[in-house]
């Protein structure tokens, strides 16, 4: 769908044309929300960066203390880098799990891969952020009276069900409970709320201690602040350091002075609160505009579109339609008994989601960084090339043909995988009768 301006200028009135009444004034808060970039969580970190390794999931009550002690151990080398051996020793986990954790971190880091990651090392600050969000719990489906309980549905509960829903694809289709699954906006708001709650502890982990009293004793350099880009980003692609008033327009040859962690904390919380308010306002507007309209399934005519169906009314536009809000993600959703081909010209951004498709063949013939296949059945999905991660969740009798650095398979049944991957596949949750033909390539 081509980008269009939010507000098209009305044609000037002519003597032969009736005058056009002026539009209703837009509230100042709405104008500010549209004009200012929206702070968003990096979905890749939360969607592809969680691992079902018990030793990595630290109880929330001891999270900050445990990671603080871990930081002290890992920082002892003085290099600022962390290798698999050091991480395994510090966390008391097998070396294979430590290598898996660092490999997963490499796959969800923003930007190009750090060359040091090829040697199996990562920046200590990134490792701490990665370990911190392992405590995040995914938003569960909204309850409704016709929905079966978790105990009544396939697959059975497992240790990984804290992150994944327990509904099978067939039950999702038959009960139509996908309408009650959290929307993209719901999940982002949940992730932002998690960061809002934990940001003080996160900044404490990253901050350096300097001579001073009280709030002035903990500071962050611009380089450390930029590592928060692992968790947060602006909708318009503005780097965090350029958006922050205390680091904006800094001379690379003369880095800005460190800033108190409390000042950074206040600025981040202010932006998170504005983003949550913006999302809530847009969601309320959408619900009000569609209160008398049912939620139709995606029709065959819409099968070739890149986004979900949204209200076309300018006053009812959802937050998903704001410029840049989801421009990094394209969708193929609710396709049944048909074939879909997506080429490079059809896809915007670097991420693709194939959701709730049945008895279809889907070709994604464009390079991507991230890809998700969720809730599909009796479907073949072909990915041309995925630079980071392919994630397949809650699928039945699905065939996946993909070339990717790595793949995560969770809670799938009777699926076949034809893969060219750099890393060993990660298979988690409750899986049954999986088959695979895998070609392994070297490198990370």
TrEMBL record:
<protein>
    <submittedName>
        <fullName>Uncharacterized protein</fullName>
    </submittedName>
</protein>
């Amino acid at each position: 769908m081509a980008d269009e301006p939010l507000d098209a200028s009305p044609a000037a009135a002519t003597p032969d044309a009736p005058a056009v009444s002026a539009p209703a004034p837009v509230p100042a808060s709405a104008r500010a929300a549209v004009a200012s970039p929206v702070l968003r969580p990096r979905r890749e970190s939360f969607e592809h960066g969680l691992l079902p390794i018990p030793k990595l999931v630290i109880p929330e009550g001891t999270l900050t203390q445990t990671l603080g002690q871990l930081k002290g151990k890992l920082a002892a080398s003085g290099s600022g880098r962390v290798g698999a051996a050091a991480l395994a020793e510090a966390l008391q986990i097998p070396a294979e799990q430590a290598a898996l954790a660092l490999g997963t971190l490499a796959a969800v880091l923003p930007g190009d891969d750090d060359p040091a990651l090829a040697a199996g090392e990562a920046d200590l600050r990134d490792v701490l952020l990665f370990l911190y969000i392992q405590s995040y719990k995914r938003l569960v489906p909204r309850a409704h009276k016709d929905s079966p309980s978790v105990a009544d549905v396939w697959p059975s509960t497992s240790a990984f069900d804290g992150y994944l829903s327990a509904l099978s694809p067939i039950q999702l289709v038959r009960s139509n409970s996908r309408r009650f699954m959290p929307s993209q906006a719901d999940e982002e708001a949940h992730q932002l709320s998690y960061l809002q709650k934990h940001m003080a502890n996160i900044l404490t982990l990253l901050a350096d201690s300097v001579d001073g009293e009280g709030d002035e004793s903990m500071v962050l350099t611009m380089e450390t602040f930029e590592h928060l880009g692992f968790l947060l980003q602006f909708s318009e692609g503005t780097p965090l350091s350029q958006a922050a008033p205390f680091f904006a327009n800094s001379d690379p040859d003369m880095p800005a002075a460190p800033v108190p962690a409390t000042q950074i904390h206040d600025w981040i919380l202010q932006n998170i609160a504005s983003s949550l308010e913006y999302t809530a306002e847009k969601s309320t507007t959408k619900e009000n505009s569609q209160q008398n309209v049912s939620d139709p399934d995606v029709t065959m005519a819409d099968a070739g579109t890149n986004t979900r169906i949204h209200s076309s009314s300018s006053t009812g536009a959802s937050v998903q339609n704001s410029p840049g809000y989801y421009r990094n993600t394209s969708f193929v959703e609710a396709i049944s008994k048909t074939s879909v081909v997506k080429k490079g010209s059809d896809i915007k951004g670097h991420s693709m989601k194939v959701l709730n498709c049945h008895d279809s063949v889907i070709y994604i013939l464009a390079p991507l960084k991230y890809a998700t296949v969720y809730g599909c059945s009796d479907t073949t999905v072909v990915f041309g090339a995925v630079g980071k991660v392919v994630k397949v969740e809650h699928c039945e009798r699905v065939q996946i043909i993909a070339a990717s650095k790595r793949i995560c398979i969770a809670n799938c049944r009777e699926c076949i995988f034809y893969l060219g991957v750099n890393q060993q596949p990660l298979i988690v949750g409750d899986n049954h009768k999986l088959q695979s033909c895998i070609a392994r390539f070297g490198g990370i």
